[in-house]
Amino acid sequence: MLKSHRYSCYGITAILLWSCLIALSRSVSEQLGPIGGAASLYTVSSLLLVCVMGLPKPSRFSKSYLLIGGALFVCYEIFLALALGMANNRHQALEMAVINYLWPALTVLFAVLLSDKKINWLVYPSIFLAFFGVAWSISGDQGLSVDQIAANIATNPKTYSMAFFGAIIWAVYCNYTQRVAKGQNAIVFFFIATAVTLWIKYALSDETGMVMTTSAAIDLVLAGACMGAGYALWNTAILGGNMMFLATMSYFTPIFSTLLSSVILGLSLSITFWQGVCMVTIGSLACWWVTREKPTSKVSASKEVQSSL
Known about the structure:
This protein is mainly α. It is about 80% helix and about 0% strand.
């Protein structure tokens, strides 16, 4: 029993470490630029992931998984990184993060549309609650207002679009990899591909040269450590942890991420914003709960939880 609790604690720690990445990504982009900062961050993360997980052989993976799954992964990561980095301010960056957390509900929606199985009708109000939560968060303190949402989006339509389409892409990625990956995990290759793509984009952009300060270097190392240590702890947690507990906790990531980001970035968030985050969390958790299937083994359980992170 104590051993199981210890493994579950490893899983919780991994979730908390990953929840810090939104704030650290924004901090790095403020110091090194949206594109250059993202490229640097994914380079450091790739190196640490190689140290933690090793570099698997390409021959172990199917071509469709590497090419299509990799393309979806790279697009998502770039959209999210640039949405966070190009946001007008730190508060708007957190709005990008909330929009990004629509992907669990979208994943369930796409799975429902593609499935021939009978679906619990509660999934639809759960999906609606998640979307309503996002709208509530970005409406501001005046309450839900279509005009206010439109005005907020108009201040930076590119970042809002990247955050929203990024959530759609990740939902497609989750459904696709579940069908074709067959237990494979090419996350290291995908991170390397993301870093290379970002460096190419940086070289072709008009972004000014980066100046690596001590503060930027520290944030880079911290972000990379959160990524590498998170995966190391997670891989350990799924060996002996309570998978149902870890799956449930993983769906509270929007709350953990918003809380830690507000502390790291020094933001004071309104009650309205927190209410929206809670709606997104509850809606996503409800989507998973009403559509979940009891895993037949610990391996299948771990795959279910990994797709929620």
